[in-house]
Amino acid sequence: MINRLKEHPVVGKLTAQYDQLPRRDQQALAVLAIAVLLGILYFAIWRPAVTYQDSAINNRESAQELLVWLDANRSSLQRLSGGVSGQSSGSADKPVDGRALMALVTRTARESGLTLQRFEPSGDDSIRVWLEKVPFSQVSGWLETLNIDNGVEIEQASMDRQNEPGFVSVRLTLTI
């Protein structure tokens, strides 16, 4: 393979030019080639390897610290997540009647940055809600919060796309 490389015309031309240089220029070129090779080895191989190793060590230490913290706070975390029994932490916040549901819906809508256009009771444990030209992402986040944290379920839903991208008009019937 080296013989084939030496026989290549470009290599032969470069070798001939190198041989024609004065002795001091040949030595300077050799030193320059070694310096470039060492620079490539350092910046392309050594430095990325050391950086990766340092990053891996930091990630491992962070994971170990997290594990120690999780072990130390296991009982608190289980209590907050509802423990082993499967009860959700939000079930304690579940409204007990239509008036509590109405208060919860209006409060959480306001906290989510939504303005209810209209709302009215629908039976003993349901409420109908209308929202006009609101961002879909806010509505979906609000409904997820109502469901997960408070046990409120969507009985009926109707969403109409608006001319402005990402906005909808919504009619909902929510129930406990």
Low-confidence stretches are: 84-92
Largest sheet: 4 strands, antiparallel
State the total count of DSSP E strands.
4
Shape: elongated
Rg for CA atoms: 35 Å
State the helicity in percent bands.
55-70%
N- and C-termini, Cα separation: 79 Å
Reading the helices and strands in chain order gives HHHHHEEHEE
Query: Which structural class should the secondary elements be placed in?
Result: alpha+beta
Taken as a percent bin, the fraction of beta residues is 15-25%
Q: What number is the mean pLDDT? A: 85
Question: Counting H and I runs of at least 4 residues, what is the number of helices?
Answer: 6
Across the major sheet, the strand order is 1-2-4-3
Question: Could you describe the 3D structure shown?
Answer:
With 176 residues, this protein is of the alpha+beta class. The chain has helices at 2-7, 9-20, 23-72, 74-80, 98-111, 136-150; strands spanning 118-121, 126-135, 153-161, 167-175. The longest helix is centred in the N-terminal third of the chain and has 50 residues, at 23-72. It has a four-stranded antiparallel β-sheet with strand order 1-2-4-3. A hairpin with a 4-residue loop joins strand 1 (118-121) and strand 2 (126-135). Helices cover 59% and strands 18% of the residues.
Supply database-style keywords.
176 residues, 59% helix, 4 strands, four-stranded antiparallel β-sheet, 6 helices, single chain, alpha+beta
Summary of the model, kept short:
By secondary structure, the chain is of the alpha+beta class. Helix content is 59%, strand content 18%.
